[in-house]
Amino acid sequence: MNSPLAAVRRVPRRTWIRYRFVFLVLAPVMALFIYLRIVPAGQALLMSLFDWGLIKPADHFVGLDNYVNLLSDDNFRLAFMNTTFFAVATTVISVVLALALAALLARFVTGRIGGALELLYFAPVLVSMVPVTLGWREIFNYQHGILNSALGLVGISRQAWLSDPTMALVGVVILSVWKQVGYNMIILIVGMRAIPHVFHEAAAVDGASAWQQFRWITMPLLAPVTLFVVVITTISAYNVFTQVYVLASDVQGAPGQLVRVLVYDIFENGFRFFKMGYASAEAMYLFAVILVLTVIQFRFLRGSAE
Amino acid sequence: MIRRRRTPLGSLTYWLVVAILLIGGIVMVFPLFWLVSTSLRPAPELLLVPPRLLPEQWTIANFQKVFDQAPMLTYLWNSLVFATISTVFILLTSATAGYIFAKFKFPGNNFLFMLVIATAIVPFEIYMVPLFLQMNALGLVNTPLGLFLPFLVLSYGIFFMRQNTISGVPDELLDAARIDGMSELRIMLQLVPRLLAPAMAALSILAFIQAWTAFIWPLLILNNPKYYPMELGLSQFANSSSVDFGMVAAGAVIAMLPALIAFLILRRRIVEGITLTGLKG
């Protein structure tokens, strides 16, 4: 007698009570999860295959048309280029700076002085994006912004930080690096302090210079942490929105159009033009990038754990 | 130990490095200083070229004007309520589900857990359009509930609490509590949280910051300033036509103040929390 029913009967009563408890606790949480995460994510994939609007949902199936049309959409291409440039520049600059800072603050400058310096670099992480972006908007102002005045002192002409698309992109990178570097620094400091002293001591005995120790001991042992920081910075940079929206939003009342990024373009297609299927296809392109980055991270983390 | 050799040359290098780091650090806090400084200057001084580092005539008029023109206290209150509700729910759902996934064997445990983890990979921006349509179908657009709902669960929170339960809650203790006749519910809600206090503190800091700094969802779902959280309210205020730089700066200072005060009080906990939950961007 191996029927499923018999198998169920063989489960002891205490286990059933346990199962009931598991079910009662997990059911509401999973219900929230399914409704708020899994359904919309699946829906985004589905919608991307339809010509889907606000008033005429699921009107007709268009297959991969949205994906194909996006490839020749100038706004999307511009947004993709801008976002990629932004993500690469922000990640590279903020991680390199954070590595340098962490190398100095993890072991060399420590104690009270080190802690105070850490705090200075960490300060931008503590304040939220909108107020600091407004602060940078003043700093970047063409006429009376302090940045152009400071550049004038060293003989560099005024830059149109808030109206020239290229300079605005550079400005967003500056602002984002400034905001991100302290966070990356803290994670890298924790990673560096976790490297046992003995490695550096042994190398010092063998006459390795500070740079050699950093290059040949710290860097390889820190690689998993560095990769982690690179990936999360890149992912969050691909999702950039707030600073772009706020920074460029006093230009002719068209927030975010100056530096077009992917999330802004999705936002505009979805909520200004109500091309929701089209916007979802665009979101899938963004997701593809993020998925690749995530897979890279998992690969390497698993590789280094073995 | 060779570590602490302090030759005169080493000491010079040390102070040189400190000096360089200090200059960099001053550059880092300058934008924050600049906001405060701008918020305290009278209107005519805002247009000086080149600007002066400190106001010539200090004034708090900008702050008065901000409070006159924008419901800043309402925004602050909305943010506080939003972040608190979000934090409480995320703590509750993460701690309980994390505990169940960590300590109970049942059919589907792995599958459900993987389902939760899979959603952690998908950023909010990917599904904000369909989520908005769902909220629209329920009539929750432009309501506080519509704002709160997506912030009630956090997949990373469940993952984080599961890991901490595995490493921080011994099975023997749970069995002993059961033999003593403690109900499963009390074990989960009273005994286990006591063992996981640091992890829960770290998670609540993450959850609170996440809700406090949320921008795109409030922007999508709300159009009545009555419900705006601080971030959204401030950005809309800064774009209204009647404000000058001094007022924008004053508004920004008002928005930054709670976070800075909270940090000064909870400094150690917050840094610990950020590094402990570092996995989340």
Question: Layout of SSEs?
Answer:
The complex is a heterodimer of chains A (about 300) and B (about 280).
Chain A: H1 4-10, H2 13-47, E1 50-51, E2 60-61, H3 65-71, H4 74-108, H5 111-126, H6 129-139, H7 146-153, H8 165-193, H9 197-205, H10 210-238, H11 242-247, H12 262-271, H13 276-305
Chain B: H1 8-39, H2 61-69, H3 72-103, H4 109-121, H5 124-137, H6 144-148, H7 155-168, H8 171-179, H9 184-195, H10 197-212, H11 216-221, H12 230-239, H13 245-276
Helix pairs in contact in B: 1-13, 2-13, 3-7, 3-10, 3-12, 4-7, 10-13, 12-13
Write a brief structural summary.
Chain A has 13 helices and two strands. Chain A is mostly helical and 306 residues long.
Q: Tags for this entry?
A:
heterodimer, A: 306 residues, MetI-like fold, 2 domains, two-stranded antiparallel ribbon, B: 281 residues, mainly alpha, 73% helix, 0% strand
Chain pair with largest interface: A-B, 95 and 88 residues
Coarse shape of chain A: flat
Structural class of chain A: mainly alpha
Q: What's the end-to-end separation of chain A, in Å?
A: 44 Å
Strand content of chain A: under 5%
Strand order of the largest sheet of chain A: 1-2
Largest sheet of chain A: 2 strands, antiparallel
The CATH superfamily title of the largest domain in chain A = MetI-like
Mean pLDDT across the residues of chain B is 89
